[in-house]
Design a protein that fits this description.
The chain is α+β, with helices and mostly antiparallel strands. 48% of the residues lie in helices and 10% in strands. The N and C termini lie far apart (83 Å).
Length: 439
């Protein structure tokens, strides 16, 4: 009908006009005619198509509406020249139905006000100019970067947001994301759940199958994050800004400084990680990333949780750790193949080197917790902690602090509490040794 540029311009103008008042055919035709010159013969047909597709005004989705108008225009046939956009009508975006008790934020201006920013500061922190990827001057970046070496895997990228952005991410976490419920199978980064609750589901099972997701945070794209904020009810523009505040890209010079692995088996994974880090993704180190990663895996959890009962199995996930357990005849080979296909279909990858199957005669570990008969810590961890407590009681805490913990007392209390949560009697005995230390 018309060239693509004309389609897009007309679509945007008509979407704004349609949303600027009453949502009925005469009103939409009248406002549509007010923005185009001359009035096109197909306007009435277009309006009826729009009303058939949208029974209520999509005030939270102006871009979607504009795209739909463009789609309909492409199907119409007309020999007349394209009309000109004579004027534009403005409308007030609004949230869609809120499924969860998140704060009402209808516009990016309202978002900036909530965050105590002006429009320019919001655009800067959302990296509207895309400086993070290409800025050589670290002062222009919103993150500082570090790389943690991992055996049998490329280094893990840690992106730490700078102070102001970190404060904003914490606000997003507590004011918005805390109100969005994760799937019941998710135990990581969920209030009231933990590695303990994750492991407890698989205690005393004949077979335990564990799989890890490859580069979990880096695999969560901006599109997935945007979908979470849209599902919460936020209009397109607000969801885009919230997304931009929670994702990043790793600067090219940072990635180029990472050594290429010498092990041929790791080269493929190294390249995959590089591609993920070059596009907007969740930064490991941001306060919002754990919650967003867990929510981004909701559909994966839903599919795997539905798969498990068909094999008389149980399923749960702690961050990137997927665990299934069942009877001795659990078909682990078939289960692994199906899980890999589902995981890939959901945009993730299974780290094959970390897949394991443990039977009841072997030590079964889930998130570092022994689950064979009851929850417990591995014996070597218990013995090492007991030895350190003995060393501190006999030789003093300074001598026993061989790992240079900044607060050894708090560190030991935390480890004792963890043991006690799994095995109260062991925890009690360790606490007695702790109380014998002269601090």
């Amino acid at each position: 009908m018309y060239d693509p540029g004309s389609h897009r311009d007309i679509g945007a103008a008509l979407a704004g006009a349609f949303l600027a008042g009453a949502w009925n055919e005469p009103a939409l035709v009248r406002r549509g005619a007010a923005v185009l010159e001359p009035r096109p013969r197909w306007l009435g047909t277009l309006v009826r198509e729009v009303l058939a597709a949208y029974h209520r005004p999509p005030s939270d989705r102006p871009r979607e509406l504009a795209a739909y108008v463009v789609l309909v225009l492409g199907e119409l046939r007309s020999g007349a020249p394209a009309p000109k956009v004579r004027r534009r009508l403005f409308f007030e975006p609004a949230m869609s139905r809120r499924r969860w008790p998140v704060p009402v934020i209808d516009t990016t201006g309202a978002l900036a006000e909530r965050l105590e920013l002006d429009a320019g500061q919001l655009a800067w922190l959302a990296d509207a100019r895309g400086l993070e990827r290409r800025a050589g001057d670290t002062r222009l970046r919103h993150y500082s970067y570090a790389w943690l070496t991992r055996p049998g895997a490329p280094p893990r990228p840690i992106a730490r947001p700078k102070r102001r952005l970190k404060e904003i991410q914490r606000w997003i976490l507590h004011e918005i994301l805390d109100a969005v419920p994760p799937h019941d199978a998710a135990h990581g980064f969920v209030r009231g759940r933990s590695a303990r609750t994750h492991a407890a589901l698989h205690t005393g099972r004949a077979t335990v199958l564990r799989l890890d997701l490859e580069d979990f945070f880096a695999s969560v794209s901006a599109g997935r994050v945007y979908g979470i904020f849209r599902a919460a009810g936020y209009p397109e523009a607000v969801a885009h800004s919230l997304t931009a505040l929670c994702v990043t890209v790793v600067p090219l010079e940072e990635w180029e400084a990472v050594p290429r692995p010498s092990d041929p088996a790791l080269i493929g994974r190294h390249h995959r990680l590089g591609r993920r880090l070059a596009t907007p993704h969740l930064p490991q180190g941001a306060p919002t990333s754990p919650a967003l990663a867990s929510l981004a895996a909701t559909r994966l959890d839903r599919r795997l949780a539905a798969l498990a009962p068909t094999l008389a199995a149980r399923y749960s996930r702690y961050a990137d750790d997927l665990t299934f357990s069942g009877d001795a005849d659990l078909p682990t080979g078939t289960l692994r193949r199906v899980v890999r296909e589902i995981v890939r279909d959901e945009g993730f990858e299974v780290a094959r080197a970390k897949t394991s199957v443990r039977r009841s005669h072997e030590r079964q570990l889930v998130c570092g917790v022994v689950v064979n008969e009851r929850l417990n810590v591995p014996r070597h961890e218990y013995d090492r902690l007991k030895a350190q407590l003995h060393d501190a009681a006999r030789n003093g805490s300074d001598v026993a602090n061989r790992t240079a913990e900044p607060d050894l007392r708090a560190h030991l209390l935390g480890r004792i509490a963890w043991v006690g949560s799994l095995h109260p009697e062991r925890g009690r005995r360790l606490r007695e040794r702790f109380d014998a230390i002269s601090w």
